[in-house]
Specification:
By secondary structure, the protein is mainly beta. The protein has 1 helix and 7 strands; from the N terminus they run βββββββα.
Length: about 100
């Protein structure tokens, strides 16, 4: 999604804390009941503020490297997440459901 809207992605090695792990994400502008959650992570690419498309806005970030773990389009009903809500581990499915519910209200 980010590359479609002219953003970029950055490769991180497997030791970078994003492959086959559970890690914390934060959102200090959250309307959720908590500002911190855990999500699973199975990826070797990240998006940061410098590489995020201008058409997108961050929703959740990883505090240990400030990578963007979830974003939404500023106008259209489009969301992107870096975790796998279909896999066990963390709060990812809960967060995806809530992002959709809040956007559709």
């Amino acid at each position: 999604i980010n590359t479609f809207f002219k953003g970029k992605i950055k490769f991180v090695d497997i030791g970078g804390g994003h492959n086959n792990t559970i890690h914390e994400i934060v959102n200090d502008k959250s309307s959720f009941s908590s500002e911190k959650y855990n999500v699973n992570s199975y990826h070797n690419f990240i998006i940061n503020n410098e590489s995020l498309s201008g058409d997108l806005m961050p929703l959740w970030t990883c505090p240990f490297d400030n990578s963007i773990e979830a974003f939404r389009h500023k106008v259209h009903n489009i969301f992107g997440v870096s975790w796998h809500p279909e896999r066990k581990g963390g709060d990812g499915l809960f967060l995806v459901k809530n992002m959709i519910d809040k956007r559709n209200k």
